[in-house]
Design goal:
MutS, DNA mismatch repair protein, domain I, Rossmann fold, alpha/beta
């Protein structure tokens, strides 16, 4: 008879019986049993196996799936990525682990348009185990569900977007997975986290802790985060086991591309107002002995502004300077020239703020997609862009990730953050392979980055690139 019995219970692995356990299994004074966080299930099993401790494993309530047969054929780099995940990033030391069903944990970092979904589908097909796919947006929820239903010809469950139905293959938003994790944590052998960088958020990381799934796959265009949350993701999903850049894929698997950086001057009135607001902000920092070395320092300043009127005025001045810098008149004038040069191309214009997006939409009579745009209107605009009704669209961050944007070949970044991820995602919107022109490389994509000269935006541009 087994010395230990392992069961799933409310987002934990409950250990009943006598026998040695690793340090992360702790005594629960309420039940008198021992428990570990559900995400440590694979670690617990490995620890017991290595020491020959007998146990009765009743954690997962799953059955192998049959009939999973995808039509996709992996490209060489996609097969390499899958192998790296299968072997935990180490093809030599990982071979034995893969043979016994592990490690199959880790993050794949590939650019937008390179087929991360295809790799995940191959992983699902290979493991043939019930799988939960966790995504950040309703758009991605619907895209993943359609893709899984098309590839595997079976019902796909959905958690979020008005539905709460669990199937052997289920897609969930991060929010719904957070709410249902302790309910469904024993139902899946594999969990796929799309846009896995979201998992580093303070609340969302609980999703991974509540799920017992021993196989874990994270997908992202760039693993960069402004904090140390990537370390949390590595503990919960695994490290980055495969990474390839847009530069490495351009020309063969992605469209070849060029980046043009255009500097424009502020008008005299804009320059005067910009300098005045910048001085208001920097003078306050100097008087108050405040140093901004990190995002947390800035958050402290925001908290201080709640009780310090001068701090509030300094932050407002900083915001006004930023708006001038990012939405200068000469940027919009330069955009007119770019749109005229590319009247026969498909163009996406990216901004950092809704106000600039609507200003551009009104001036050039092109549809805008922002956080204020309804789901129905967003679908109408994207479908119109796909079928050629619209040849250009302007957006404020909404199309950076989580939306299946039709192919474009020109992008214009009028304003944005210093985030490498944001820049990579925007570049990825124009990198899907285009029709071959006979050269073997297809049509070249082009990204314009328009920057206000003599402002902090030059540093922002350098940081994201």
């Amino acid at each position: 008879m087994s010395g230990l019995t392992l069961r799933f219970e409310d987002g934990t692995v409950r250990v009943d019986g006598d026998g040695d356990c690793p340090p992360f299994v702790e005594r629960d004074p309420r039940s008198g049993t021992r428990r570990a966080s559900a995400h440590r299930y694979a670690d617990l099993r490995d620890w017991l196996d290595e020491r020959g401790v007998a146990y009765d494993d009743r954690v997962l309530d799953t059955e192998p799936l049959s009939g999973l047969d995808s039509a996709y054929e992996l490209r060489e780099y996609q097969a390499d990525a899958l192998a790296a995940w299968r072997d935990g990033g180490n093809a030599v030391d990982g071979a034995d682990a893969a043979a016994r069903g592990g490690p199959r944990r880790g993050v794949l970092e590939l650019p937008t348009g390179s087929g991360k979904t295809v790799i995940a589908i191959a992983a699902i097909e290979e493991l043939a185990t019930p799988t939960l796919v966790v995504v950040p947006t309703i758009d991605l929820l619907q895209q993943w569900r359609r893709e899984l239903e098309r590839e595997f010809d079976r019902p796909v469950g959905q958690l979020g977007g008005g539905e709460q139905r669990v199937e052997a293959l289920t897609v969930s938003t991060y929010d719904s997975a957070y709410l249902r994790g302790d309910d469904v944590g024993d139902r899946f052998g594999l969990v796929v986290f799309d846009e896995v960088h979201h998992l580093g958020g303070e609340g969302y990381r609980e999703i991974a802790r509540l799920l017992a799934a021993p196989a874990r796959l994270g997908l992202t265009a760039t693993f960069e985060r402004p904090d140390d949350a990537h370390e949390v993701v590595e503990r919960l999903v695994g490290p980055v086991v495969y990474r390839i850049s847009a530069e490495e894929l351009a020309g063969e698997h992605l469209a070849p591309y060029d980046v043009k950086r255009i500097a424009v001057e502020l008008t005299d009135d804009e320059r005067e107002e910009y300098e005045h607001n910048q001085e208001t902000f920097t003078d306050y920092l100097a008087r108050s002995n405040v140093e901004l070395r990190s995002g947390s320092d800035y958050q402290e300043l925001v908290k201080r502004s709640g009780s310090d009127p001068e701090a509030r005025e300094a932050l407002l001045a900083k915001q006004r300077a930023r708006e001038i810098m990012m939405g200068s008149e000469n940027k919009v004038t330069r955009l007119a020239g770019i749109l005229d040069d590319h009247r026969d191309d498909r163009v996406i214009v990216f901004t950092a703020h809704n106000e600039l997006a609507y200003r551009i939409s009104e001036r050039f009579l092109i549809p805008a997609v922002t956080h204020r745009t309804s789901a129905a209107e967003r679908r109408e605009v994207i479908e119109g862009f796909r079928d050629g009704t619209y040849s250009r669209v302007v957006t404020s961050n909404v199309l950076d990730e989580g939306v299946d944007v039709p192919d474009a070949n020109v992008a214009v970044v009028l304003s944005g953050s210093g985030s490498e991820r944001e820049f990579t995602q925007r570049l990825g919107r124009i990198l899907r392979p285009k029709a071959d022109d006979g050269s073997g490389l297809g049509e070249r994509a082009l990204l314009y980055e328009v920057v206000s000269e003599g402002t902090a935006e030059k540093r922002v541009s350098a940081r994201r690139r």
